[in-house]
Amino acid sequence: MYNVVGNTALLTLILCPPITDLHALFIVEQPLANATPSPVAEPRLQTLATGLKQRARELGFQQCAITLPDASMEAEQLALWLERGYQGEMHYLEQHLEKRLHPALLVPGAERIVMVRMDYLPPDTSTLTTLADPDKAYIARYTLGRDYHKLIRKRLKQLGQWLQQEAGSETEVQFRPFVDSGPVLERPLARNAGIGWVGKHTLILNRSAGSLFFLGELFINLPLPVDAPETESHCGRCTACLDICPTRAFPEPGVLDARRCISYLTIEYRGAIPIELRPLIGNRIFGCDDCQLICPWNRFAKRSPEDDFKPRHALDQADLLTLFNWDEETFLRNTEGSAIRRTGFEGWQRNLAVALGNGRGGEEVLQALRAKRPHVSALVQEHIDWALERLESAAEPSPLPILSHPGAKRIQDY
């Protein structure tokens, strides 16, 4: 998943915008056809690897690296993470464990995995300014534009086709792209390929690009030379990401308890958000970027040139009340081709009710909440009732830890 909330926790989950492994059930048992290609001389393999990386840059990827299909070193930590229940209700993460740890079982015949990353931060998009305005809706920045899955998968397919063509007819190259579409431990694989290290916030960090990028994988049956892994962490003594997490979702460095993570609660979770966490969610209605925004390495994050990642329907500056007043038809129309649809209309209404309850309130907001209540599900009604009670009692908003952190001065905002 996305380097995102899209790139997240060690072993772990892909929150910010994962597609569940249900999508992968149609492909996990399929081997690469004619998986063993004719032998290719080592100098020719090096030439192909060099050309592949250049072609990846031409296709819009900011980095491309090659690694072995092996994540077995994650077995102990993955088992412990699942045993502690940190996956919440994402039960698909408990499935296909052997395929996660041994990717060649996922795609029989795979000799290498080509890892790519693509920057996603849209240009001219505010972060802290929006977070600090309780009347505005904060949506994780990776999902303001079109759904990245199709774009990256298409580019990966083009990269595989280039490799087939360049290898020539004597070498039958086979490939299969993945973008959050199978049981792939992409962050450990990205680390093994040298793309970056796993930070204390569980995301892949790159010294020249921070963490605001997507990851994708291309499984191939050609033994291209592999890149050196990233063997060191460059986080040092910094704990900014852990210190400012609104819901204290990191029980220890490098470990994420999804059950307390705002991205999980507003995207993956289908039930009632725990009452004690609701005030801490603030105006975040889909995902959370706080642990990435505060990271000093993200001062090197690049704005994406991709038009598809630019905000649609002015979602980067939308008012909470405007979005709450959408009916389902409007929601479906305005989120067509967007990862936001993952939360569903009920989840969208639930999240907005919580955010409105954390806002300034006012008569217009109170009327909107009361008017909507008879026409929504029991789940949404519960969150509307909480919002009304909170606003009518004039409860003070919870502080935003990120705003008071000294590192906030580094954050580039527009």
Automatic annotation (TrEMBL):
Active site: 180
Cofactor descriptive note: Binds 2 [4Fe-4S] clusters per monomer.
Domain named 4Fe-4S ferredoxin-type: residues: 222-255
Transmembrane regions listed in the UniProt entry: none
EC number: 1.17.99.6
Keywords assigned by UniProt, alphabetized: 4Fe-4S, Cobalamin, Cobalt, Cytoplasm, Iron, Iron-sulfur, Metal-binding, Oxidoreductase, Queuosine biosynthesis, tRNA processing
Localization: Cytoplasm
Database matches in HAMAP family: QueG
Protein name: Epoxyqueuosine reductase
Organism: Marinobacterium zhoushanense
The gene coding this protein: queG
